[in-house]
Write a structure and sequence with these properties.
The chain has one domain. It is 0% helix and 43% strand. It starts with 6 loop residues before the first strand and ends in a 23-residue tail after the last strand. 3% of the residues are buried. By secondary structure, it is mainly β.
Length: 99
């Protein structure tokens, strides 16, 4: 890595069906790599990302395509976030949300 380019990978366990979890690699580049610093292994997160794709043609002329998921925001599930401050209800007030 150089001063101009940095990259960090994050493996997210996605368990819509806990019997069959999926492990998805997402990537952070340059100034977005530091947004991962506030999170720990095993912490539940909500990740916002862009889907990117690139072609690559080998010497024989065969073109392959590669996809990547590039992080632009990550939040802790449970209200804490490195991008959005936690919202709390003042003491004595009830949350009136229907869910």
């Amino acid at each position: 890595m150089s001063e101009k380019f940095s990259k960090r990978d994050l493996i997210v366990e996605y368990a819509e069906n806990p019997s069959y979890p999926e492990f998805i690699k997402v990537e952070a580049f340059n100034d977005k790599t530091s947004i991962l610093d506030k999170f720990s292994v095993g912490q539940e997160v909500d990740v916002d990302f862009n889907l990117k794709g690139k072609p690559w043609t080998d010497k024989a002329g065969k073109t392959s395509y590669f996809n990547s998921l590039v992080i632009w925001k990550i939040n802790s599930v449970g209200g804490l976030s490195n991008n959005v401050p936690a919202v709390t209800t003042p003491a004595g007030e009830e949350d009136d949300l229907p869910f």
